[in-house]
Amino acid sequence: MGGEIHDECGIAAVSLKRESKALFYLYRLLLNLQNRGQLSAGVTTYNKERPQLINTYRNIGTVNEVFRTSNVQKSMELFRKYAGSKGIGHVRYATCGTNERTQAQPFERKHGRLWKWFSFGFNGNLVNFEKLKKPLVEKTEYHFILNNDTEIIMHYLARELKGYKKPSLKAVFHNLSRIFDGAYNISFIDAYGDLAVCRDPLGFRPLCYAIMDGELFAASESNALVNIGARDFKSLQPGQLISVKNGDIKVETFSRPKRKAHCMFEWVYFANVGSVLDGRSVYVTRTRLGKELAKLEREKITNDHIVVPVPDTAKAAGDAYAYELGVPSMEALIRNRYVGRTFIEGTKREDKVANKYTVVKEILKDKKVLLVDDSIVRGTTSKQIVKFLKKLGGAKEVHVRVTCPPVKAPCFYGIDMSTVSELLLPQYEKELDPNKTSENVLDRIAKDMGADSLIYQTIPGLVNSIGLPKQDLCMGCLTGKYPTTCGRTTYCKALKEFRSGKSGKRSYER
Ligand code: SF4
User: Fold this and answer.
1) Do 349 and 293 touch, CB atoms closer than 8 A?
2) Chain segment 313-327, per-residue pLDDT in tens
3) From ligand 1's centre to the CA of 364, what distance in Å?
4) Which DSSP helix (H) or strand (E) runs through 276?
5) For labelling, which of 133, 153, 180, 271 has a CA lying 20 to 30 Å from the CA of 49?
6) Does domain 9-258 have CATH number 3.60.20.10?
């Protein structure tokens, strides 16, 4: 897929006992979460010596662009200005809204009362956005500036914090969990300096923390914690909140869900390959996916065959698949690591792929390529890659092998694929059967892609590879069976629209 879809965000939080170095840690955590969003980055820090007790800095760009690290003087000014003992951070990739700075997080809400003056960062997506917005608009005359779910969360948090006495954050998140439907990991800080990080009751997105010498560090992924020196980290359990108040760190349960719904795509594609999510290593999962895929191989292997993994997310799976089959795994598709985001790359998918990869024809010439990719969502990138391998590289055959089962339905929980019409599979299959995809459909897709054959991972192969019970995973986009009420109703609506030819908009369009 090579970056065809994106996660929405990454969050971080730091609480130190004395030193005002929270921003240095936040910066490093966010750098290590850059894979989760490159559109904008931001922080809110707390410093009781400052008139601005909590102060937010956010901007468009990668973490290093936002923190101006190419200009030492400017960067140091920022680090001095936003120095604090506590803080929260955010990196964003937008599935909705524009690229403006106003969309960047954290979102700060100022108020004269210390507990009502707060800031927060959000990772996920609320499926019942419209339902949540309605009472605010109708009954209480709220005004919406950005009209996105982050703004909704801000209003609902503010509503929970009203009154003359500060409520406990456990009560606040408990109340929100009764009305929010969707994925929502939230980092929160107020002008008292109280800080909290919460994971939604189904645990769609990952969230980890480490406590070192009485100081708290939290991040969406474990690799960020390990890279700042944490030797021991834990996953925050779904429905839990970790908070720091007057220096005391406490883990509390604000909701007791009947099931979990960890997004399977985190292991397949999104998360950093070095991370461990809910006790399961991303690297080990990807190697298992490769081994499972090898069990499905039908191609008669010859000396002309080579395995080419799509970098970087299919590398671990591709190598394991190649090892199982006894075929060399070759880097014949090289990712151009320093391209980054640029307007020069153009808007055409072909131009983007051309900018992103280099093919090594010295490896590919006259070879039968087993191309291992992590997933196919829209199919546009895969088609371009197959074309490049054959036309530019001179490959004789290209057989596409996919480590994720077919994506047959949209995601309403914060992944950038929220309509049926944008997905490849529904264009070929009338009845979207989660348990099988006919050979005929696979042959047609392969043909349209310019490939010689196509094999996808199976759902049992995926579940075995992750190693968590099936009922603890969200696989809504593979099966059409969503773990929340609004997910289910939104899918029915989306499918109906798609079948009537009306689709094209997000089913929860703002
Ligand atoms: S629908 Fe798919 S992408 Fe979305 S949270 Fe569930 S598994 Fe992840």
Assistant:
1) no
2) 999 999 999 999 999
3) 35
4) strand 276-277
5) 153
6) yes
